[in-house]
Amino acid sequence: MKTPDLSAPRSRHRLIAALAALVTVLVLAGVGVYGLITGPPTSNQPGTAQDQDGSELGATAPSVPASTATPRLPTVRVAADPETFARNVATALFAWDTASGFMPLDYTSVVLAVGDPSGAEQAGLASDIATYLPNRDAWIELRHYATAQHLTIDEVFVPDAWDAALEQAQPGQLAEGTIAYTIEGTRHRTGLWNDETVTSEHPVAFTVFLVCAPTYDTCHLLRLSQLDNPLR
Predict the structure, then answer these.
(1) C-beta separation of 138 from 53 below 8 A
(2) Which residues pair with 200 in a beta bridge?
(3) Strands 148-157 and 178-193
(4) What is the Cα–Cα distance from 125 to 146, expressed in whole angstroms?
(5) Exposed, middle or buried, 180 (CB in 10 Å: 0-12/13-18/19+)?
(6) Residue by residue, what is the 3-state secondary structure of 186-227?
(7) N or C: at which end does the chain have fewer Cβ atoms within 10 angstroms?
(8) Cα–Cα dist 51/228, whole Å
(9) Where is composition skewed (Low complexity) in this entry (predicted)?
């Protein structure tokens, strides 16, 4: 078998093309795993737990196995007890699955459904929730890896800063039963890379602002703090 002459122009061009293709594959593979573990960006969040995902997946993305279970959106269970409701909100807020067929707006609607019935904070709350979820483009990228997320809660407490805020509030400035809870926990993500399960964990902290009795019989969500920038 004749050894090709690498000094010939045609052979050099073929060699350069092959090396370029190999480098591209290696770069895409590395970026893909990084994107799965760190997740997509969220806007206006210093110290956010969701970092840049700029991967070009293309043909390197693994096939996602079809699920036989009917996908369902999470729900926020109604509760009259403020701490219980705060936990329910936090659990639903971090529960999503890109392989479910749902999109970020579907998960946003779940949390908005328990917002203040007056509607005064609805637009602000929708904006808050959006910063906790991948944007549409990042969601589509993560779907290639069947990325899913859930939260485990470690601590729930009324922050000292909220007690100070109540003392300084003017009469009638806050509805009766308004309260804040800071939640500390761990965000868990799972996904598939080359048909193998990949997992990651990241500590998170945030504050939920609620209004409960006597204003309403059950609690409702007013606003959310920036992720990883809670009241202390």
Answers:
(1) yes
(2) 189
(3) antiparallel
(4) 27
(5) buried
(6) EEEEEEEECCEEEEEEEEEEEEEEEECCCCCCCCEEEEECCC
(7) N
(8) 13
(9) 59-70
What is the tens place of the pLDDT at every residue in 157-182?
999 999 899 989 888 889 999 999 99
Q: How far, CA to CA in Å, does 48 sit from each of 25, 45, 63, 202, 205?
A: 29, 5, 29, 10, 10
Residue carrying structure tokens 């328990």: 114
Q: Supply φ then ψ for residue 207, to 5 degrees.
A: -125, 135
Q: What is the pLDDT of residues 201-224, one digit of tens each?
A: 999 999 999 999 999 999 999 999
Q: Where are the domains of the chain?
A: 9-224
d(CA 96, CA 179): 26
* Cβ atoms within 10 Å of 163's Cβ, excluding its own: 11
For Cα atoms 22, 25, 28, give the angle at the middle one, nearest 5 degrees.
150
Render the burial of 190-212: b for 16+ CB within 10 Å, e for the rest.
bbbbeeeeeeeebebbbbbbbbb
Q: 3-state class of 54 per DSSP? A: coil
pLDDT digits (tens, 9 = 90+) for 59-91: 234 444 545 568 899 999 999 999 999 999 999
Q: How many CB atoms lie within 10 A of CB 57?
A: 17
d(CA 115, CA 220): 5
Beta strands in 67-177 (DSSP E): 96-97, 148-157
